[in-house]
Amino acid sequence: MGASKPLLALLVAGSMLTAVGGIVVGNRAVQCAEAFKGRALEWHGKAQKLQRQLDASQAIRAELEAKLKAKPATTSASAVGKAGTLSRKAQNYVNLKAPHDHYWRGQVSRDLHGHAVFKSPEWSLRAGALCLRSYARKHGIRTIRGIVERFSTNNHEEYIRFLCKRMKLKPDEPFDVVARIPELLPAMVRFESGASVKPEHIAILDFLKES
Length: 211
What we know:
The chain has helices at 4-68, 86-89, 121-137, 144-151, 156-167, 181-193, 199-210; strands at 78-79, 107-110, 116-118, 195-196. It has 211 residues and is mainly α.
C-alpha cells in the first residue's frame, strides 16, 4: 500500500504533464492556424488588388486598340504639324513604312509597327513622293487601285473610293502618277492622318516630280 502511493502520484503527475503539453501544443496549433489565416487574408487582398489593376490595364488596352482600329478617313482635318493621330506624333503623315536596311532622309527612328518616325512632316512628304515616283517608274504602277494595293495593308476599297473621288479617276483608270503627285499625296495624307498639306509643301512636291 505504501509503495502504491508514489506510483499513483507519479501517474497523476504524468497525466498532468501530458494534459499541460496537450494544451500547449493545442495553443500553438491555434496560433499557427490564426497566423496562416491572417496570411491567407493578406494574400487574398493582394490578389484582389492585382486583379483590379489587371482589369484596369485590359480596359485601357481595349480602348487604345479601338482607337487604333478607327478609320483614318473619319478623323478631323487640321494643319500639318498639329499632333493628333499616331501618324502625326511620328511626323509621318502618310504612315510610310520604314525600310528594313536603311532610313529615309529625315527619318530618326521607327515605331513598334514598323512605320518611320521623321523629324518633321516635310521629310515624310518627301519620302512619300519618292515612294510614289518609284511605284510609277520602277514598278509601272499607273492606277489608283495599283497604288493602294501596294501601299496599304487594309481598308483597300475605302481607300480606293476616297482617292478616286479626290482625283476624279476610276479605280483602274491609268494616269500619270508622277505628274499628279502634288494632288495624289495630299489626298493620301488626308486619308491616312486627317491632316492638310500646306502650300509650301506642295512646292516641295512639284520640285520632286521634276527630278
